[in-house]
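Researcher: Let's do a round of design. I'm pasting the structure tokens now; please hold your answer until I've finished.
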């Protein structure tokens, strides 16, 4: 940290974790800038939670370095916890404790009282503080975890499937709040299977598979690309067109170039039908993972 401000929010370099003979992660490197809302996506078992658990010092790495706010995830974990909030994918608190008491205890870990900000967040997420934790629904348990993570005004937030269990209105509410927080300089690592929310709210995304980072992509750079699906017609050749998939008379291309050129190509090909869409994060995800599976 420099002058109380975090310069490099999260840095991960060649991280490795072996669970005995099993590999958790093999080679994970990426960094999250100050004030960035950064996406972390990958299939089940890819190594997202392992990476997050190392960052939070719940488990030790087998190799490589992970740091938050320039502090080492292993050696400086106590200091890191003072300015880092965490929403786990599965929320567990003492079942018999009332929600208000859980938040009070959680704030206490950060030397904060139950203040106006805590009250604002409880209202925003419509949290019933009088209920015992075990009486809450799945979504309300998640909301309790959201308030516990945000109330101490952390500088860094680590979110593991934060919208899992939240209804669509609360999901929007959470992201509106996260956008505000990142505009105020809070750095956010968002691990999610919901590619729609990652595409909507994150600018950069790290893709992980089998413990290795496949790519860190700036979504602004892929936006001009179109996904073109055609049925029937003649062969279409153009340097701006890249064939992604071909099956049963259907061909899927990625196109980068001028729209007028694309329209002429489609017109001349004598097609039965076609669709043109902006390239989505889901398409990029499927393409990256398909490529990896090709021999
Ligand atoms: N305690 C453990 N013991 C042995 N292997 C483990 C352990 N925890 C995780 N693994 C293995 O490490 C790999 C990465 O798992 P991890 O939970 O980090 O993936 P993930 O990307 O978070 O998956 P998901 O999206 O399903 O939550 C998997 O192969 C998993 O089986």
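Researcher: That's everything. Go ahead.
Model: Designed sequence:
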């Amino acid at each position: 940290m420099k002058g109380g401000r975090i310069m490099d929010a999260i840095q991960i370099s060649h991280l490795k974790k072996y669970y005995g003979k099993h590999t958790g992660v093999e080679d994970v490197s990426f960094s999250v800038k100050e004030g960035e809302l950064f996406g972390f996506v990958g299939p089940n078992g890819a190594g997202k939670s392992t990476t997050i658990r190392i960052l939070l010092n719940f488990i030790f790495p087998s190799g490589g370095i992970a740091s938050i706010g320039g502090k080492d995830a292993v050696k400086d974990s106590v200091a890191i916890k003072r300015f880092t909030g965490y929403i786990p994918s599965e929320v567990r608190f003492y079942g018999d404790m009332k929600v208000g008491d859980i938040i009070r205890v959680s704030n206490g870990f950060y030397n904060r009282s139950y203040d106006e900000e805590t009250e604002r967040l409880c209202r925003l997420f419509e949290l019933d503080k009088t209920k015992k934790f075990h009486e809450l629904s799945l979504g309300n348990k998640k909301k309790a975890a959201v308030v516990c993570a945000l109330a101490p005004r952390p500088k860094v937030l680590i979110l593991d499937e934060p919208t899992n269990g939240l209804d669509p209105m609360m999901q929007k509410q959470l992201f509106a709040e996260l956008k505000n927080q990142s505009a105020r300089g809070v750095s956010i690592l968002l691990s999610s299977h919901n590619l729609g929310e990652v595409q909507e709210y994150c600018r950069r995304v790290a893709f992980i598979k089998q413990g290795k980072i496949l790519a860190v992509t700036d979504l602004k750079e892929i936006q001009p690309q179109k996904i073109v699906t055609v049925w029937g017609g003649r062969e279409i050749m153009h340097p701006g067109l890249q064939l992604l998939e071909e099956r049963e008379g259907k061909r899927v291309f990625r196109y980068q170039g001028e729209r007028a050129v694309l329209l002429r190509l489609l017109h001349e090909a004598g097609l039965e039908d076609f669709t043109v869409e902006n390239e989505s994060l889901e398409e990029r995800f499927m393409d990256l993972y398909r490529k990896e599976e090709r021999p």
